[in-house]
Amino acid sequence: MSNTRAGFVALIGEPNAGKSTLLNRMVGAKVSIVTHKVQTTRARIRGVAIEGDAQIVFVDTPGLFKPRRRLDRAMVAAAWGGASDADVVVLMIEAHRGITEGVKTLLPRLAEIGEGRIVALAINKIDRVKTEALLQLTKEMNDAYPFAETFMISAEKGHGCDALRAWLGAKMPEGPWLYPEDQIADLPMRMIAAEMTREKLTLRLHQELPYELTVETENWEEREDGSARVDQIVYVARDGHKGIVLGKGGETIKSVSKASREELAKFLDRKVHLFLQVKVRPNWLEESERYSEMGLDFKDGNT
């Protein structure tokens, strides 16, 4: 292809700012975990979108927050790493929350990594506030940082997203496309499948437990009839958590397995046989192998 463009766009912001929702809308398919709970995205998930002659590789980073433990620190390091590797950085904030303390703490670091690259502002969830408040927020944010452009969007409803994608496409550097035209994500299918199951667990269970669990795809078998057998392990940190994940009479894990299997089958457009096991690993948060499976660097979790 001639006169093509390709580059990386990092979406950064606080947890729950809508980064995963925007990534999925930009790509046109669900490649990132989306729940109402914060800190659900753990790895730098890449989604690929085509805009005219440009290929935009979106990096959906974990939300930026004050880290307390190893997994927190590894997630925050992954987020800033994704931003520092990108051609364009998009800072997402929530219109109704405005300039929070969290956003204020991001700006000095953004000034460091923003040097020499394009940084845009996306004010999300604009349907929750009045126009006057949006204009005031836009002014205050641009007074705090010299953004190249400001976009007012609703990632959930799609408002303003086409304009943002068109602008990003024009900002990509000239060069050949980085991925095949029909590829929408560069995560291994095993990891996407694990993320789907973790999302279903996160939605079913209370707020604290999802942080203490992780899902890994242990085996992936392609069958002669075109279907796939997928074996996954849900690791939890405590015996008490295993019972919660299983549910009374195995009800919870059966429901999660069914929902995850149906979504994975739809994603792959073929039949899937999904088998889940729940295992207790008290120290999985300190095991480097678990971080590798999540696409994180264990060393980044060091203090």
Could you walk me through the main structural features you see in this protein, from its secondary elements to its overall organization?
The chain is an alpha/beta fold and 303 residues long. The chain has 2 domains: 167 residues, P-loop containing nucleotide triphosphate hydrolases (Rossmann fold, 3-Layer(aba) Sandwich); 113 residues, K homology (KH) domain (GMP Synthetase, Chain A, domain 3, 2-Layer Sandwich). Helix content is 37%, strand content 23%. The strands form 2 sheets. The protein has a 6-stranded mixed beta sheet, sandwiched between helices. Helix 6 runs antiparallel to helix 8.
Task: Please provide a brief summary of the model.
With 303 residues, the protein is of the alpha/beta class. It contains 9 helices and 9 strands. The protein starts with a strand and ends in a 9-residue tail after the last helix.
Mean pLDDT figure: 81
Q: What is the molecular shape?
A: globular
CATH H-level superfamily title of the largest domain: P-loop containing nucleotide triphosphate hydrolases
Helical proportion? 25-40%
Report, as a whole number of angstroms, the end-to-end distance. 46 Å
Largest sheet: 6 strands, mixed
Query: What is the CATH class of the largest domain?
Result: Alpha Beta
Strand order, biggest sheet? 2-3-1-4-5-6
